[in-house]
C-alpha cells in the first residue's frame, strides 16, 4: 500500500496559527471551552476543513465534525480527533495536535485524490478540559450517550453561564445526530509524561488509561481573630489542610515513578487575612497503573488525614468516590499503529495514559486507539508545554497509515 | 461624685437587637462595612441616638456621631465608641459593645439630667474590620488625618464597588467636619484573648497594643497536568505553600503564650484540580509584646521559607514590611479606669491588645484608653463569639465613671 505524504510545514503552521488565538505572553493559550477565543479557533478550524472540501457538521453539544465520504455508503466513518479548548493557562499542543493532525491526514488524502471505503472524519470535541465546565470530556460523553444532553446543556461555569447559552452565543449549537455508529476512533496526543522523552522513543502506542482518582478533602476549623486568638484556642482549617497537602505530596513521591498523588486546588471560607478560616476544601488526585497500587495510595491518604486530625484536633472529612477504572484500548488498532511506526522506522513503546482523554469516552462506543508523541519534561497544562515539529509530523504520519490500513482491512 | 445607673437590660437588649441585623444561623453576624445590613444597623443606631436626644452627624467617610452638649462651649468632646461593621462571619460583640456601651452611658447621663462640662459623644467608625475594604480602621484613620479622604473614597471591594459609591448608596455620605479637636477617647471592647477569662478578672485596663505584622509570602511553581505530570517534574506552588503554612503555625505555637503567628488566607492561580498551580500567595500574621520577640518571629519565618525553598526547589518570596509599632495608651486615663473599676469592686489586669482597634488611630490625636472585658475562650471574628451580660454591663459602668471623672478633672 502507498501512502500520501503529510504536509509537515502546513501542520506546524496550523498549530502555530491556532496558538495565536487566546495567546498568552509566555507562549501558551487561554482558550477555555465556549469562550470567545474557543469560538474564533472553531471558526478557523471550520474554514480549514471547508478549504479541503470536507463536509462540516455540528451536533447539539457543539462537537464539530469534518467528513470526507467513502466509496461504500454502508460503512460507518473512521474518526480522528481531539479538542481545541485549553486549560487556563494551557499549552499549544494538548488537544490541537490531535485535531490538526487529523486534519493533516485528511488534507493528505484529499490532495492525493485517494479513495477510501469508509468515510473519514476529523472531530473537535467540546469541553474536553473541564477547566470551565465540569465534567471534562463533555462533548464525547454526550456523543456516546454516557451523559445526557439536557444535563450537559444545563452545566454552568462559575459565573453562572450555561453550556447551552454559551454554545448559542458562539454559534456552535448544531443539530447533527448524536450516538451515530463509528467504525473506529484514533486520537493523537502529546504524552503529558516523560517516559517517551527519557527513553528516546518517538511513538507511544497507548494500551489504555491508568486508574485515576479525584477526591475531595474537607477540614473543619473555627473562625477566630487571626492575631488576637491565643494559639492554643486556634482551630485553623488552613493549617490542617496544609498538613494534609504536605503528606499527600510525600505519598505521591513515594509512589514515583509508577503512581502519583498531589493537591492542586484549595478553597477557604472566609479567605481573609484577619479571620482564621473555619473551612478548607481541597481536591486531591492520584493515578496508578494497577488497582492494588491505587488502593494503597487511598489507604496512605486516609492514614495521613487521620494523623492530621490527631495532631490538629480538627475534624477532616475525606470523600471516597470510586476511581475511574483503567481503560483498555483496542489491540487490533494497536497492532496497526505498531506496524505503521515500524514501517516508518520509528521506535515505539507501549504505555498507558495517566490523564483523561476523549478516547476514554469513545472506547465503549467503538474500537479506539491513542498515539502518543513526546513532550518536553512531561509538562502540559502549562504555558511551557513544548514538543518538536518532527514528533508532531511523525505521530501524524503514523496515524494516517493506521487509518488507511484500518480502512483497507475493516 | 455620684454616678447615674446604667440600664443593663436595655444595653443587652440593644446588643441582641442589633445582632438580628445580618444574623447568621449559628448566632453571629454578617454585617460587612457599607453593606445593606450595615446600612440597616446604622439606621437603628441613629434612631436610638435620636431617641435620647443626641444630635446626630455623619462625616464624609460615614463615621456617625451622637452628641450631647456640655456646659462649657469652649471644651472639645469626650468621645466613646467603636464600630458596627463585622467580619464575614463575625460575632455579636466585637464592635457593637463599644458603640452601644457608649450609647448606654449617654442614655444614663441623659436620663439623670446630668450636666457635663464637655460635650459627650458616641461614635460608630466606618469599616473598622477591613473585611470588605482594605485597610481596616478606615473611618478613624480619615477622621484623624492619617489617611486622606480621596484615597479612602476610592478604595474598592473585590466586586469593584468603591467606598464613595457605597456610602452614597446606603445614604451615609455626610459633611460633618473631620480632624476636629477631641478631648479624649474611650473604647470598650471584648478582649479577643483569654487572659482575663483565665485569670477570672472582669476589667482589662489596656496599656496599649502589641507589635503586629501582616506580610505576604509568594510561592512560584510551574503549571502542569495534576495527574499526568511525573512527580519529579512537578513544581506545585500549593505544596510549597503548605510547607510554609505548617512551619509558621509551629512557630506561632513555639512563641505561645507571649506571641502568635499563623496563616489565614491563601490564593492560587489557577485554582483548578486538574492543573498544578504556578502561583500561591498567602498572608501571614504575627503579634508579640516586644520588638525583639517580633524580630525573632520574623527570623524564624524567613528560615522556614528558606528551608521550604531548599526542600521543594521552588522560589518563595517573602515581603518584609515594617510591623505596626506597639502603641501606648494614656496613663492618666488608665488611672481613671483603674479607680473606676476599684470603686465598683471589680478586679483589674493591665494588658495589651493583640488586635487592631480604632483606638490605635485615635491615640496620636487625643488621650486614648481602651477597656477590655472577657470573652469566651478568646474567640472573636466568629459566629461563636460569646460574652456575659454581667461583663458587658461592668465594662460600661467603668467607662461611664471614667468619662465623668475625666469631665470633672480635665
UniProtKB/TrEMBL annotation, chains A, B:
Binds 2 Zn(2+) ions per subunit. The keyword Signal does not apply. NCBIfam families: hydantase (TIGR01879). It holds the Pfam family Peptidase_M20. Zn(2+) 1 binds at residues 83, 94, 189. It comes from the Bacteria. This is N-carbamoyl-L-amino-acid hydrolase. Its cofactor is Zn(2+). Keywords: Hydrolase, Metal-binding, Zinc. The keyword Kinase does not apply. One of its GO terms (molecular function) is hydrolase activity, acting on carbon-nitrogen (but not peptide) bonds, in linear amidines. SUPFAM superfamilies: Bacterial exopeptidase dimerisation domain, Zn-dependent exopeptidases. Belongs to the peptidase M20 family. Zn(2+) 2 binds at residues 94, 129, 381. InterPro entries: Amidase_Cbmase, Bact_exopeptidase_dim_dom, Peptidase_M20.
Amino acid at each position: 500500500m502507498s501512502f500520501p505524504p503529510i504536509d509537515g510545514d502546513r501542520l506546524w503552521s496550523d498549530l502555530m496559527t491556532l496558538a495565536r488565538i487566546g495567546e498568552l505572553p509566555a507562549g501558551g493559550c487561554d482558550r477555555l471551552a465556549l469562550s470567545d477565543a474557543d469560538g474564533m479557533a472553531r471558526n478557523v478550524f471550520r474554514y480549514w476543513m471547508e478549504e479541503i472540501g470536507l463536509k462540516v457538521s455540528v451536533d447539539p453539544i457543539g462537537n464539530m465534525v469534518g467528513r470526507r465520504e467513502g466509496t461504500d455508503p454502508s460503512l460507518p466513518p473512521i474518526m480522528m480527533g481531539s479538542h481545541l479548548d485549553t486549560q487556563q493557562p494551557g499549552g499549544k499542543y494538548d488537544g490541537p495536535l490531535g485535531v490538526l493532525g487529523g486534519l493533516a491526514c485528511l488534507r493528505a488524502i484529499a490532495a492525493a485524490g485517494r479513495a477510501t471505503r469508509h468515510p473519514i472524519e476529523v472531530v473537535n470535541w467540546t469541553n474536553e478540559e473541564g477547566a470551565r465546565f465540569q465534567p471534562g470530556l463533555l462533548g464525547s460523553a454526550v456523543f456516546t450517550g454516557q451523559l445526557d444532553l439536557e444535563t450537559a446543556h444545563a452545566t454552568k461555569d462559575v459565573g453562572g453561564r450555561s453550556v447551552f447559552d454559551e454554545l448559542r452565543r458562539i454559534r456552535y449549537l448544531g443539530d447533527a445526530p448524536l450516538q451515530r455508529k463509528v467504525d473506529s476512533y484514533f486520537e493523537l496526543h502529546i504524552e503529558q509524561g516523560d517516559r517517551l522523552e527519557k527513553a528516546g522513543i518517538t511513538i507511544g502506542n497507548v494500551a489504555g488509561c491508568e486508574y485515576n482518582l479525584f477526591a475531595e478533602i474537607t477540614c473543619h476549623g473555627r473562625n477566630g481573630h487571626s492575631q488576637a486568638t491565643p494559639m492554643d484556642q486556634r482551630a485553623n482549617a488552613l493549617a490542617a489542610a496544609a498538613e494534609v497537602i504536605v503528606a499527600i505530596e510525600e505519598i505521591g513521591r513515594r509512589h514515583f515513578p509508577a503512581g502519583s498523588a498531589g493537591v492542586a486546588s484549595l478553597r477557604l471560607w472566609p479567605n481573609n487575612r484577619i479571620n482564621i478560616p473555619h473551612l478548607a476544601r481541597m481536591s486531591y488526585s492520584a493515578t496508578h497503573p494497577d488497582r492494588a497500587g491505587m488502593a494503597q495510595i487511598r489507604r496512605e491518604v486516609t492514614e495521613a488525614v487521620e494523623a492530621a486530625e490527631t495532631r490538629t484536633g480538627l475534624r477532616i472529612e475525606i470523600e471516597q468516590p470510586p476511581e475511574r477504572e483503567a481503560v483498555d484500548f483496542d489491540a487490533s488498532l494497536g497492532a496497526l499503529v505498531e506496524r505503521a511506526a515500524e514501517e516508518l522506522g520509528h521506535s515505539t513503546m507501549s504505555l498507558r495514559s495517566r490523564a483523561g482523554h476523549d478516547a476514554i469516552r469513545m472506547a465503549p462506543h467503538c474500537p479506539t486507539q491513542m498515539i502518543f508523541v513526546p513532550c518536553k519534561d512531561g509538562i502540559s497544562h502549562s504555558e511551557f508545554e513544548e514538543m518538536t515539529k518532527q514528533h508532531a509530523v511523525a505521530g501524524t504520519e503514523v496515524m494516517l497509515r493506521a487509518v488507511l490500513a484500518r480502512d483497507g482491512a475493516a
